[in-house]
Amino acid sequence: MPPDVNTANIEVKICGLASPECVDAAVEGGARYTGFVFYPPSPRNLEPAEARALTERVPLGVHRVALFVDPSDTDIDQVLAQSQFDIIQLHGSETPDRTNNIRARTGVNVIKVIKLAGPGDLAAAASYRGAADRLLFDALAPKDRTDALPGGNALAFDWSLLGGVRVGLPWMLAGGLTAENLAHAVAQSGAAAVDVSSGVEDAPGVKNPDKIRAFLAAAAAI
């Protein structure tokens, strides 16, 4: 029987799920959040009808997260019409006003992604107080990475940037995380929740159930 709560010390979100086997591995391994991507350029993109069969495998107590990048209201409505989601994750250039508008219009909690390369990038976090329910800190891709997606690029940043920082909202850590470096990343950043996508894949968009289980086991051991 899948757990109805996460048993790990660190809350984990497995993002970019696209197969029943990987959804089941995430749930059975104790993931607190399951992420589903709705961004056509991404190799992890799902059509709304595809996502329904996957989200129905997620039991109560495990949050279902719909990830968008600068979505229109229509984009969001088409997804929410097919599946029930607990959280919307915004991974683009959404302003605080747009973030708050989406939260108010849908009645769904919102995670806003903040991309970091250096200390100066943290300043953006403060503007989302009152507009988002949680932040997610991910790596900002360098300008010469013309092939980079908004997320899921297997890029890390200096995790110590977040050590001791108070941002006024709950937050998650993402960017280049693997089972092997997770404990170090948590120790450096002080994160209580983490998000992984490429770190549990064999290739972009191809999740490996065994890697999902290993990542969750690593989180449980912290």
How is this structure best described in words?
The chain has 222 residues and is an alpha/beta fold. The protein has one domain: Alpha-Beta Barrel (TIM Barrel). The chain has helices at residues 20-29, 48-55, 73-80, 96-106, 182-189, 209-220; strands at 11-14, 33-37, 63-68, 87-90, 109-116, 134-139, 171-173, 193-196, 201-203, 206-207. The strands form 2 sheets. It has an 8-stranded parallel β-sheet with strand order 7-6-5-4-3-2-1-8, with helices on one face. It has a two-stranded antiparallel ribbon with strand order 9-10. α4 links the parallel β4 and β5 (109-116). α1 runs parallel beside α6. The radius of gyration is 16 Å and the shape is globular. It starts with 10 loop residues before the first strand and ends with a helix.
CATH H-level name... which superfamily? Aldolase class I
Task: State Rg.
Answer: 16 Å
Number of domains: 1
- Spatial strand arrangement across the major sheet: 7-6-5-4-3-2-1-8
Describe how the helices and strands are arranged.
Blueprint lengths: L10 E4 L5 H10 L3 E5 L10 H8 L7 E6 L4 H8 L6 E4 L5 H11 L2 E8 L17 E6 L31 E3 L8 H8 L3 E4 L4 E3 L2 E2 L1 H12 L2
Parallel strand pairs: 1-2, 1-8, 2-3, 3-4, 4-5, 5-6, 6-7
Antiparallel strand pairs: 9-10
Helix pairs in contact: 1-6
Short description:
The chain is of the alpha/beta class and 222 residues long.
For the structure shown, list the relevant keywords.
222 residues, disordered N terminus, 6 helices, TIM Barrel, two-stranded antiparallel ribbon, single chain, eight-stranded parallel β-sheet
